[in-house]
Write a structure and sequence with these properties.
Mean pLDDT: 96
Shape: globular
Number of domains: 1
Number of helices: 3
Order of helices and strands: EHEEHHE
Radius of gyration: 13 Å
Low-confidence stretches: none
Largest sheet: 4 strands, antiparallel
CATH architecture: 2-Layer Sandwich
Number of strands: 4
Strand order of the largest sheet: 2-3-1-4
Distance between the termini: 11 Å
CATH topology: Alpha-Beta Plaits
């Protein structure tokens, strides 16, 4: 299993716009084969975090090639000021 933590810092006053795009991304991503979990959480209205779990690297790679992911990524470019992506694997898979 692969876990992804993607942190995003929003440009000022972009929270509602970001959430509108992100809701569709979350909904459609949860339907993908190989998706175990896909959640969006917030610290406040300027910092949010996607927390994801994927069956394997292949599932994660296929996710980044979907129409809804590409569409959201393009929309996020005008809403996000900074982002960080970290990928984790369980200790028992090393």
């Amino acid at each position: 299993m692969i876990r992804v933590v993607a942190r995003v810092w929003l440009k000022p006053s972009k929270f509602q716009d970001f959430v509108a795009v992100a809701k569709e991304l979350v909904e459609k991503s949860r339907q993908e084969q190989g998706c175990i979990a896909y959640d969006l959480v917030k610290k406040d209205e300027s910092m949010l975090c996607f927390i994801e779990a994927w069956q394997d690297q292949k599932a994660l790679t296929l996710h980044t090639q979907t129409k809804h992911y590409i569409k959201a990524k393009q929309a996020f470019s005008s809403l996000v000021s900074k982002n960080e992506l970290e990928i984790f694997t369980p200790l028992d898979e090393t």
